[in-house]
Automatic annotation (TrEMBL), chain A:
<keyword id="KW-0812">Transmembrane</keyword>
<keyword id="KW-1133">Transmembrane helix</keyword>
<keyword id="KW-1003">Cell membrane</keyword>
<feature type="transmembrane region" description="Helical">
    <location>
        <begin position="192"/>
        <end position="217"/>
    </location>
</feature>
<dbReference type="GO" id="GO:0005886">
    <property type="term" value="C:plasma membrane"/>
</dbReference>
<feature type="domain" description="ABC transmembrane type-1">
    <location>
        <begin position="68"/>
        <end position="259"/>
    </location>
</feature>
<feature type="transmembrane region" description="Helical">
    <location>
        <begin position="68"/>
        <end position="91"/>
    </location>
</feature>
<keyword id="KW-0472">Membrane</keyword>
<feature type="transmembrane region" description="Helical">
    <location>
        <begin position="12"/>
        <end position="38"/>
    </location>
</feature>
From TrEMBL, chain B:
<dbReference type="InterPro" id="IPR017871">
    <property type="entry name" value="ABC_transporter-like_CS"/>
</dbReference>
<protein>
    <submittedName>
        <fullName>Spermidine/putrescine import ATP-binding protein potA</fullName>
        <ecNumber>3.6.3.31</ecNumber>
    </submittedName>
</protein>
<dbReference type="GO" id="GO:0016887">
    <property type="term" value="F:ATP hydrolysis activity"/>
</dbReference>
<dbReference type="Pfam" id="PF08402">
    <property type="entry name" value="TOBE_2"/>
</dbReference>
<dbReference type="InterPro" id="IPR050093">
    <property type="entry name" value="ABC_SmlMolc_Importer"/>
</dbReference>
<dbReference type="InterPro" id="IPR003593">
    <property type="entry name" value="AAA+_ATPase"/>
</dbReference>
<keyword id="KW-0813">Transport</keyword>
<dbReference type="GO" id="GO:0043190">
    <property type="term" value="C:ATP-binding cassette (ABC) transporter complex"/>
</dbReference>
<dbReference type="InterPro" id="IPR003439">
    <property type="entry name" value="ABC_transporter-like_ATP-bd"/>
</dbReference>
Length: 276, 369
């Protein structure tokens, strides 16, 4: 009844206008990047017709391709690394009932609110301090450190929803503590683990700040590579690179939302973050 | 079979080792003693209930038998074997959890077969035994379903089958019916008892619901503050409670506190209630007399009854019965439960203010210290 009457109600023009402006502000620049990546001429202001020459430029630019591969590699390794460490941390924290344990749990979430630039500077100081040569390895180490908290938050959420009796049931039915973890707890967590892994992949893949502070000279992660190349004039090839990154990130995000549902869950692990 | 159970109290099973044997079992958390030097023997094939309010230590006792909680003191024997220090996965007991604790990533068949796979039994035998177990709980048609697709009652049956299929020495049930609605709970009580008879496995059933305990158990132990207040057959525990707590916890009881002297209890001035002999009291002790509401008559009293005059305070109609509150002294009000028999018309019911005479047979009054 109320839903129907609301539908009949006139929408205030101001609200519609604000919404339109908001979405235009949000997505028009991105749409422009995508559009001009298909421009047939080297202009960033006039569109002269459809072409894929900038994609060809991108594919033939060995530096850019190396950077893209590097970024995918960093994201994949970081996702796996953060997943292993973050899950271990979540399992440990869920078993600690003391006040100290809860305090430790709160501290592990600090990376979520620490300004990334602070983390970046700190990581740079650490790596140079211990004499570690800046490279893709240092980028990956920094990204893993930064991403553990995301995994821990998601996995702890799923663990909290899981009754402690489930693990006891496994032990009751003949599992050692280790078997209970392997045969029951971890399989139950699979949707959360997949969601968390894909989320970390997407976050790390296009991360600029941490990568900028911790990368070596060559090869550089893609976002850093793009940043340094536009300082010497913007080539439309950058638009093509941006579009590729956009599609990749979106694809991973969609997977992160869909895969847990395929497991027969009503809620995806990402709901924790999107608040849906 | 049931005859054997009823004599297990005495010497009936003295030769065989009890299914469960607890000696001085104690659990303390800091200064808090939750289970206090419990001694208990549960016979083979017995349906035994631990009944008590929340926090009485019944669940802690169950968890110690399962192995999830280490006793502070005392020993646990299962089937004649000391398992006090044995980890849960090597104890010959299985548990039906209150939350069911089903494995959501496995289907019903996978859940029920889980324990057998851990034991390394060959796949054909597992398939057959899982099939039988599902048949037993009438879930054969849901073998391929995920737990998330089942109703509460069905999940409960899966949890039961998953534990029973292992044929443990003892099945531990931690308030397994608590999450079901009343009607389903009643049906499951009957079914659970039938299943227990069929599989002939010792059931140790933990509950706070006196109805469940009375209707299913061969024996009941009433627990309070970590100790067993009374242990016996349901009818004995109900008819002859030995403590004020036991009388109050199982069913409703009219408690009349007073001073004992010369074969009767003085409840207040001018009201002396005769009690049966054989209690060995001298005189002057503070005691309570307990009479069950359904043992008190308001009409058709017989000469051998104890008679007390009173005034009806209120009456409430419950369909099959009518419940009256009757004041027999300024401070003493008794609850009386009267059957609404076919020959009685609604006009036969007492109205508030009516003067009545209450009566009960002397043997129905229980003297509690």
């Amino acid at each position: 009844m109320s839903a129907r009457s609301r539908r009949v109600e006139r929408r205030p023009a101001v609200a519609v206008a604000v919404t339109v402006v908001f979405f235009a502000w949000l997505y028009l620049p991105i749409a422009a990047v995508v559009l001009f990546s298909f421009n047939s001429v080297k202009s960033l202001s006039t569109f002269r017709g459809f072409s894929t020459r900038w994609y060809a430029d991108f594919v033939h630019d060995a530096d850019l391709v190396t950077s893209l591969v590097a970024s995918i590699g960093i994201a994949a390794v970081s996702a796996v690394g953060a997943l292993v460490l973050g899950t271990m941390l979540a399992l440990g924290l869920s078993r600690i009932r003391s006040r100290t344990g809860r305090a430790v749990g709160a501290v592990t979430l600090l990376p979520l609110v620490t300004p990334e630039i602070v983390t970046g500077v700190a990581a740079l100081l650490l790596f140079t301090g211990v004499g570690l040569k800046l490279s893709l390895v240092t980028v990956t180490l920094a990204e893993i450190t930064f991403s553990i908290a995301y995994v821990t938050v998601i996995v702890r959420g799923r663990l909290a929803a899981m009754s402690t009796e489930v693990e006891e049931a496994a032990r009751d039915l003949g599992c050692t503590p280790w078997q209970a973890l392997r045969l029951v707890t971890l399989p139950t967590l699979v949707p959360a683990l997949l969601g968390a892994g894909l989320l970390v992949f997407a976050l790390v893949f296009d991360d600029f700040v941490l990568a900028f502070f911790t990368t070596g000279v060559s090869p550089q992660p893609l976002p850093v590579r793009i940043y340094s190349s536009i300082r010497f004039g913007v080539s439309p090839a950058i638009n093509a690179v941006g579009t590729v990154m956009l599609v990749l990130s979106a694809l991973v995000m969609v997977l992160a939302l869909i895969v847990p549902r395929l497991w027969g869950r009503k809620s995806s692990s990402l709901d924790l973050i999107t608040g849906a | 079979m049931s005859l054997l159970h009823h004599t297990s109290d005495d010497a009936g099973l003295a030769t065989a080792a009890p299914a469960v044997s607890l000696r001085g079992l104690t659990k303390s958390f800091g200064r808090d003693t939750v289970v206090d030097h419990l001694d208990l023997d549960i016979g083979k094939g017995e349906f035994f209930s631990l009944l008590g309010p929340s926090g009485c230590g019944k669940t802690t006792t169950l968890r110690m038998i399962a192995g999830f909680s280490d006793p502070s003191e005392g020993s646990i024997m299962v089937g004649g074997k000391n398992v006090t220090a044995t980890p849960p996965h090597r104890r010959d007991v299985n548990t039906v959890f209150q939350s069911y604790a089903l494995f959501e990533h496995l289907d019903v068949r996978g859940n029920v077969g889980f324990g057998l796979r851990r034991k390394g039994i060959d796949r054909r035998a597992i398939g057959q035994r899982v099939g039988e177990a599902l048949e037993l709980v009438q879930l054969a048609d849901r073998a391929g379903s995920r737990p998330a697709e089942l109703s509460g009652g069905q999940r409960q049956r899966v949890a039961l089958a998953r534990a029973l299929v292992n044929r443990p020495q003892v099945l531990l049930l931690d308030e397994p019916l608590a999450a079901l609605d009343l009607k389903l709970r009643r049906a499951m009580q009957v079914e659970l008892k039938a299943i227990q008879r069929e599989v002939d496995i010792t059931f140790l059933f933990v509950t706070h619901d006196q109805d469940e305990a009375l209707s299913m158990s061969d024996r009941i132990a009433i627990m309070n503050n970590g100790v067993i207040e009374q242990c016996g057959r349901p009818e004995d525990v109900y008819e002859s409670p030995t403590s004020v707590f036991a009388a109050g916890f199982i069913g409703t009881s009219n408690l009349m506190p007073g001073t004992y002297a010369d074969g009767s209890v003085a409840v207040c001035d001018g009201l002396r209630i005769p009690v049966p002999a054989g209690h060995g009291l001298g005189g002057g002790e503070q005691v309570s007399v307990a009479v069950r509401p359904e043992k008190i008559w308001l009409s058709e009293l017989t000469p051998d009854m104890v008679r007390v005059p009173g005034t009806v305070v209120s009456s409430s109609y419950h369909g099959a019965t009518t419940q009256y509150l009757v004041a027999i002294a300024p401070e003493v009000t008794l609850t009386v439960l009267e059957q609404n028999l076919p020959r009685m018309s609604p006009e036969d019911r007492w109205t508030p203010g009516s003067r009545v005479e209450l009566g009960w047979l002397p043997e129905h009054a229980v003297l509690l210290r």
